[in-house]
């Protein structure tokens, strides 16, 4: 097999209609943020795991690298090819089947190309809950969620994608298939291969299916919106929520005034509450196994206590599902409002919750001095210590020119601050190509060497998503 006869071989495997070339590849070649455009040798769309394995074997024989792609909703430039036109995009979108729902074992086995929202709906119809929830759930896929260890809005209760996965089916770099779909909660038989592939961003193997953990549907789910005077008050409210609600607390999101101002400006019909009167707002969600009345009583007692302690200055509890949806829609619209406002700088970081107020105060001041007038758009999953710590150009400024002049220095300042506070430069988005060259500054040499050893062992030809996560050579 040589690169010259690879495309005919791929057509024999998946069918001619599912090997795309030329302009037909365009929609697969640009990242979600529209900041990076690659060039694919071709796009291959297999329909099953056996076809993925055959494609991988053909590419291995030809020495051609593969970029696995699901919904292409990633934010770190990890799912599009480079510009040399020599990489194949392996799109898993045709592999959408929900293979089985096991009611007694409370698991679902699903193919990698299944859209997250479709899985949520299928499981809901069966009377159960798959709790992974994020803004891109209408287009992101399960394979991508696992490859990046996606987080979302309910991590505080259910954990990241890793905690929700009990088994995987993975095609390796040489075309072998690891069949590890057992839905076991206990399996102490050696190295944890499943967790090795989760979060590896397609650099160690291609996830083709997964067995996922399910939960009972709650009897009631309530949402509240609270105004807090400071980020310190928000963290105090989180601690109080844990004490009052315990495991019933399923979501705890924080949004600063700058983020909500953008939503109000671009989506005024959403009627953002309270944002003009306070610097921070919190969105809380609680699930209850008893009844809505029980859930509401607990929520009301929590918020009353918080007001008496001067932690919350004002609050509302959604009266119905529509109102709850509207409040969540505001939170989920922040990213879209940033895009509508213009080019921006994104950071997905985590810091120990107890240190977040100090981190934000110090870093905000540093960035204002570094880039006067920069607009700080801070929001995220305070319940698990994850902030989307973003920046917008000064109002009226040329956004492209501002980013060209300041992005490198701003990102370095943010990452250095995160490191000082004992945090991580990537909480849930991954590393991809965007943060690849930053990683050696924030991982120990031992950790990096272990990662390279694993990569070499599983992908000695470096055919799986090369140039993502790890640089080809150690950065000096």
UniProtKB/TrEMBL annotation:
GO terms for molecular function: oxidoreductase activity. Residues 36-217 form the FAD-binding PCMH-type domain. The keyword Flavoprotein applies. InterPro entries: FAD-bd_oxidored_4_C (IPR004113), FAD-bd_PCMH (IPR016166), FAD-bd_PCMH-like_sf (IPR036318), FAD-bd_PCMH_sub1 (IPR016167), FAD-bd_PCMH_sub2 (IPR016169), FAD-linked_Oxase-like_C (IPR016164), FAD-oxidored/transferase_4 (IPR051264), Oxid_FAD_bind_N (IPR006094). It is an enzyme of class 1 (oxidoreductase). The keyword Flavoprotein applies. Keywords: FAD, Flavoprotein, Oxidoreductase. Belongs to the FAD-binding oxidoreductase/transferase type 4 family. This is FAD-linked oxidoreductase.
